Amino acid sequence: MSQFCFDLIHTDAGTTARRASFRTPHGVVETPAFMPVGTQGSVKGVEVGQLRETGAEMILGNSYHLAIRPGEEIVSKLGGLHAFSGWDGPILTDSGGFQVFSLASQTKVSDRGVVFQSHVDGRRMEMTPERSIEVQQALGSDVMMVLDHVVELPNEREVIQDASLRTIEWAKRSRGTPTGDHQVQFAIIQGGLDETLRGQCADALVSLDFPGYAVGGLSVGELPEQMYRILDVTCPLLPVDRPRYLMGVGRPQDLLEAIGRGIDLFDCVMPTRNGRNSQAFTDEGFKRLRNAKYADDSRPLEAGCPCPACQRSIGYLRHLFNVGEMLGPILLSIHNLTYYQRLVSGARTAIEHDSFEDFCREKNAGWQSENPIEESN
Description:
This protein is an alpha/beta fold. The protein folds into two domains: 8-268, Queuine tRNA-ribosyltransferase-like (TIM Barrel, Alpha-Beta Barrel), CATH 3.20.20; 275-369, no CATH class. 39% of the residues lie in helices and 19% in strands. The chain is built from 14 helices and 16 strands. The protein has helices at 48-53, 63-68, 72-77, 80-85, 97-102, 129-139, 157-175, 195-206, 224-234, 252-260, 270-276, 314-322, 327-352, 356-369, and strands spanning 5-11, 18-24, 27-31, 33-35, 59-62, 91-94, 105-109, 114-117, 124-127, 143-145, 184-189, 212-215, 244-246, 265-267, 279-282, 285-288. It has an eight-stranded parallel beta sheet. A three-stranded antiparallel beta sheet has the order 1-2-3. A three-stranded antiparallel beta sheet has the order 7-8-9. Helix 10 (252-260) runs parallel beside helix 13 (327-352), helix 10 runs antiparallel to helix 14 and helix 11 packs antiparallel against helix 13.
C-alpha cells in the first residue's frame, strides 16, 4: 500500500479554494501549504528547530545544487536528505531543470536531456529525466519533481511549444523509471503564457496518471494578471484528487489568488531573501526596516505574532541591520517564514468556514493601506 494519500476535506463555497491533507512517509501536510526553500539542504540562516516553530510542515531541496555539492552519493551515505539536514518532516526536491537553464553555462538541450557546465567549477555534466530521478532517489526526498524544459519568457511560440512537447516526453520517461512506495513523482506543466499550449501539456501529463501536478514556468517576470489567467485555464484540467503545486510563487497576494483558483502547495525564496535584506511582511504591508522612521519605534513588527523577532522592538531590529549583526537577518527570516505560515493557516480556516473571499478582502485591504507589498528585488 502506498504511503501517500491526498484527502480533499472541503472546497470553499465561493471559490475553488481547497482544504486538504497530504499524507507522506514523513508526516502529514495540511494544505494550502507553503514550503520554505532549503536549496542547499538548509533554509538560509534558520535551524530546523526554529523552522518547525514557524509552522512549516514541508520544505524544498534542490537536486541540481545537491548533486554538485556535496554530491548525492555523499548525502545518501549520510542517511539521505532527512538525516543529512536534520529535518524529519516531508521534503520535496526540485528536478534541477530551472537551475540548469538559469545558472549553468554552455547549456545544450536535446531530446535526450541537457548537457551543461556547472556554475560552481565548470564541470561538464548531463541531466536526463532518468538521471534527475536517480539523483532524487539517492537524496531520499518524499516528492520528486520530474525534469522539465524551462525557457525564458517572453519567447517565440515555436520555442515554447518545443519546450512543452519535450517536457511531456521527458515526463513519460520519468514515469517509466521505477519508484518505491516511499517516494512519488510530480509532473510539471509548461506552456508559457499560451493557454492552448498549457491545456495540451496538462492533458498529456494527466493522461500519465502522476500522483501530483505542478504549474511551472511562471513568476519569471510576467504580470500577475497573466499568471492568474494561466491558472484559470490550467487548474480545472487537473485531477481533483491530486495535489496541485505552483512553483516559485511568491508574494502573499499571489498565494491567495492562487489558492482561490485551487492551488495547494507553494514555495518561494521571498520570505528568507527579503528577511536577509531587512524587509518584513506584515498584515499592514511591507516594512523596510532600514527606513529612518523606525529608529525609535518601540512597537513589535506585528502584534500577536509569536515569532522571536516580534518579542523585540522594531527599533532594535533596525539597529541589528545597521550594525551588521547577523542576528538581524536570522530574526527577520524567521518572522517572514512565520508570517507565511500564519497566512496559509488562516486560509485553511477560512476555507473550512466558506469565508475565503472575506479573508482575502481583509488581507488585501491591510496590505494596500500603508506599505504595499511589491515585487521583490
